[in-house]
Amino acid sequence: MKPVYTIANLRKKYQNKEVLNIDNMQLYQGEIFGLMGPSGAGKSTLLRLLDFLEEPTAGVIEFKGERFGNGREPELKQKRKITTVFQRSALLRTSLWNNVVYPLKLRGEEINGEKKEEIEKLLEQMGLTEFKDQRADKLSGGETQRAALARALVFEPEVLLLDEPTSNLDPTNIGIIEEMIKQYIKKENKMILVVTHNIFQARRLADRVGLLHQGQLVETGEKKSFFNSPEQELTAKFLSGELVH
Amino acid sequence: MGTIIEGVREAVYLITGLDPEILNIISVSLRVTGTALIFAILIGMPLGTFLGMVNFPGKKLFTALLYTGMGFPPVVIGLFVFIFFSASGPFGFLNWLFTPNAIIVAQTIIAFPLVAGFVMTAVMGIDRNLLRQMESLGASRLQLLWTTIKEARLGSVVAVVAGFGAIISEVGAVMLVGGNIRGRTRVLTTAIVLETRQGRFGLAIALGIILLTIAFILNIIMINLQEKEID
């Protein structure tokens, strides 16, 4: 498999407090990587660094063969291949439709016949058709999260970073979102990283799984071996619910 | 009381009869204030957006200066503009004193801190998470700025209306730098002062009614925009 990201000696500090310290990590094209870990482990920080929304304090992130870090940032064209759906989705104060087409407009894309049909199909798959003209701030939590995912999928990013995309959602909404994630990886062969607290969700979705604890990557592995025979004691503790912080 | 009734009667006659002098005063007022407002928006909106979005050393001091500017006595601004544009002032060579240009400068200085201050508050009220999300979706810096202005549009409308209200009703600075010259720099407020002093209450009341009507129309527009946003 072709690596999309190769991380080496990545450090992130906030006011002299180190929150992330990953010696090495690789993420591959065509995989769903499930990132797990207790609260405050540094999962969201890692996502911000992978999306180049923040600069690392030290270390290198190699993205699609280009090395970034130490003051070197990717250009907008490169950054536009990546997107994050945050845990608390934020939509613009406009209609759902305008929200979904927003990334396309940013890229100067025409939303004409064929493209419009594609977007309408996407909304239909996500059960959002009836809300497309509704103002985004009138949507429910589940609808908002689905709209945020539709907005991310609409421009077919090469990397999709999902920060607890289904936390606090009901089973129906979780089902729709997980189905869309699976379909996207199958159809587009891109890379998805899902941060989740939910072991069952990681089992359902991920190809490989990793555990982050106190900013350090404890273990990564194929789903089966990670869950059935973890190498590290910390992983075993986490999976059995004994690792709180 | 009789004077007021007589004045209102005359005002109705002047307004309905489309008195040329009144029309000229309205025209000068709207032209000058409109131009000043455009400059205030051009300066105030990007400044307010920047201050609302970006943290930098000295921001507190800058913000305090801006707030001071929002409450700065217009007549003092008029005084400084007068000094700067008087024959011995640094911009005396422009010969702008007692012309509409001097009024535009004074009104711009009065209005832009108001526009910037209101826009800054509106931008600061935008969810930081939303801006980060827009960036993650691929917005360039310029696109992010534009999206922010659009998201803060309700506050921006209030900013524009507040700026307009402040300068259309201002008299001290306009009197100082414009000189209240008939047909050239006479605006609604300065005309009201003059006509009142001369005992021509009818004309003064007519101008007062017009000024109030303009303010009223603006507020109606603002309320409609607000309602549209909230619904």
Describe this structure in words.
The complex is a heterodimer of chains A (245) and B (231). Chain A is of the alpha/beta class. Chain A has a single domain (3-95, 155-239), classed as 3-Layer(aba) Sandwich (Rossmann fold), CATH 3.40.50.300. Helices cover 36% and strands 27% of the residues of chain A. Chain A is built from 9 helices and 10 strands. Chain A has helices at 43-50, 76-79, 96-106, 113-125, 141-153, 171-188, 199-205, 223-228, 233-239, and strands at residues 3-14, 17-28, 32-36, 58-63, 66-68, 82-85, 159-163, 191-195, 208-213, 216-222. In chain A, the strands form 2 sheets. In chain A, strands 6-7-8-3-9-10 form a 6-stranded mixed sheet, with helices on both faces. A 4-stranded antiparallel sheet of chain A has the order 2-1-4-5, covered by helices on one side. Chain B has one domain (2-13, 24-230): MetI-like (MetI-like fold), CATH 1.10.3720. The model of chain B has no long low-confidence stretch (mean pLDDT 91). The radius of gyration of chain B is 20 Å and the shape is globular. Helix content of chain B is 78%, strand content 0%. Chain B has 11 helices and no strands. In chain B, helix 1 (2-16) packs across helix 11. Chain B is mainly alpha-helical and 231 residues long. Chain A binds chain B through residues 51, 53, 76, 79-80, 82-84, 86, 88-93, 102-103, 106-107, 148, 151-152, 155, and chain B through 127, 129-130, 132-140, 143, 147, 150-151, 229.
Give the topology.
The complex is a heterodimer of chains A (245) and B (231).
Chain A: E1 3-14, E2 17-28, E3 32-36, H1 43-50, E4 58-63, E5 66-68, H2 76-79, E6 82-85, H3 96-106, H4 113-125, H5 141-153, E7 159-163, H6 171-188, E8 191-195, H7 199-205, E9 208-213, E10 216-222, H8 223-228, H9 233-239
Parallel strand pairs in A: 3-8, 3-9, 6-7, 7-8
Antiparallel strand pairs in A: 1-2, 1-4, 4-5, 9-10
Chain B: H1 2-16, H2 20-53, H3 59-70, H4 74-85, H5 100-124, H6 128-136, H7 141-151, H8 153-168, H9 172-178, H10 188-197, H11 201-230
Helix pairs in contact in B: 1-11, 2-5, 2-8, 3-5, 4-5, 4-9, 5-8, 5-9, 8-11, 10-11
